[in-house]
Amino acid sequence: MKKLKNEKELVKKAIALGMEYGEKRGVVEFEPTDSAAEKVEYIYRLLVHDNLIQPLPEDQVSQQSMQHKLAIWASKQ
């Protein structure tokens, strides 16, 4: 997995876009106390469920790999 040039910024953008997408869709309401890790996992699973990103093999799912997938998704938005 090759790290993207500005991956941290893209992950932040992906969280913001994913939160907006989930709330607009009416499936989630994020709380200020939710950690970034929880948001990343929920957004990743939501996007996989909606077929907007390809799922990772279940044995390769980790916080870092989910962030990477979300960063790639955000870069294409």
Automatic annotation (TrEMBL):
Gene3D superfamilies hit by this protein: Uncharacterised protein PF16691, DUF5062
InterPro entries according to UniProt: DUF5062 (IPR032036), DUF5062_sf (IPR038316)
Protein name: DUF5062 domain-containing protein
Organism: Alloalcanivorax venustensis ISO4
Lineage, top ranks: Bacteria, Pseudomonadati, Pseudomonadota, Gammaproteobacteria, Oceanospirillales
